[in-house]
């Protein structure tokens, strides 16, 4: 269904219909939240087993819609901005989860060597720092970034990811331009995304880099995530 595809350019491939998500998101009440392509003619490309199949597709405005060209353009622009915030929080969660996996693996390795010559001399102090970092990351993820238990829906209050997905879905709904409230909330979510990145940066600076310094000269791999804010 063309209306529900995420069209980011004039040439699209079949995998663009899937939204970027790490599997923990939830659909909103308006169905898939893909961005509606503006009326016009597009070249659609489907790649199957290395073969490319291309044909033009003309998209017309739904005859039931009374939206003007200006309204459609405003909706598209707002939907793209809202989707960018969904993508940002998903990338933040991915970076946090990567750090958590690395720290958990490091914790297991340090526990396995115990107080032997195979482990660092400050093993117990490092384990304390690792436990603190993992606790900070878990609290941050569960209280701010995403609902901690998938599938419970509105039995848990929405975190940043669910808020961003809901607003993007409302803006992208058919035959309605964005409301002032939706535009305002998109701006607020951007600010919250900025704060989330700053908080993750703080954990990296105050926790992860300290662990790296304590393990200098020992075998370990902890890679701080790149900063996400453009």
Key structural traits:
single chain; 230 residues; mainly alpha; three-stranded mixed beta sheet; elongated
Largest sheet: 3 strands, mixed
What level of helicity do the residues show?
Answer: 40-55%
Determine Rg (CA atoms, Å).
Answer: 22 Å
Strand content: 5-15%
The best one-word shape is elongated
Sum this structure up briefly.
This protein is mainly alpha-helical. It has four helices and three strands.
Give the helix/strand layout:
Blueprint: E1 11-12, E2 40-48, E3 51-59, H1 69-113, H2 123-145, H3 160-171, H4 180-214
Parallel strand pairs: 1-2
Antiparallel strand pairs: 2-3
Helix pairs in contact: 1-2, 1-3, 1-4, 2-4, 3-4
Descriptive account of the structure:
The protein is mainly alpha-helical. It is 50% helix and 9% strand. The chain contains 4 helices and 3 strands, in the order E-E-E-H-H-H-H. Strands 1-2-3 form a 3-stranded mixed beta sheet, with no helix packed on it. The longest helix is centred in the middle third of the chain and has 45 residues, at 69-113. 26% of the residues are buried.
């Amino acid at each position: 269904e063309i209306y529900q595809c995420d069209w980011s350019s004039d040439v699209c491939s079949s995998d663009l219909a899937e939204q970027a998500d790490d599997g923990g998101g939830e659909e909103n009440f308006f169905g898939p939240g893909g961005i509606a392509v503006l009326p016009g003619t597009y070249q659609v490309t489907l790649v199957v087993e290395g073969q490319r199949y291309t044909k033009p597709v003309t998209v017309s405005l739904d005859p039931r819609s009374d939206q003007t060209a200006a309204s459609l353009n405003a909706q598209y622009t707002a939907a793209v901005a809202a989707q960018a915030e969904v993508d940002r929080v998903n990338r933040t969660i991915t970076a946090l989860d990567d750090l958590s996996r690395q720290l958990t693996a490091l914790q297991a390795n340090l526990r396995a060597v115990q107080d032997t010559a195979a482990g660092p001399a400050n093993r117990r102090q490092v384990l304390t720092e690792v436990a603190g970092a993992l606790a900070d990351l878990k609290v941050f993820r569960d209280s701010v970034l995403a609902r901690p238990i998938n599938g419970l829906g509105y039995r848990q209050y929405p975190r940043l990811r669910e808020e961003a997905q809901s607003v993007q879905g409302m803006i992208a709904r058919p035959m309605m331009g964005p409301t002032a409230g939706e535009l305002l909330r998109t701006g607020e979510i951007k600010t919250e995304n900025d704060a989330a990145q700053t908080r993750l940066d703080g954990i990296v600076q105050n926790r992860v880099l300290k662990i790296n310094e304590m393990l200098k000269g020992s075998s370990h791999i902890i890679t701080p995530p790149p900063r996400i804010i453009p």
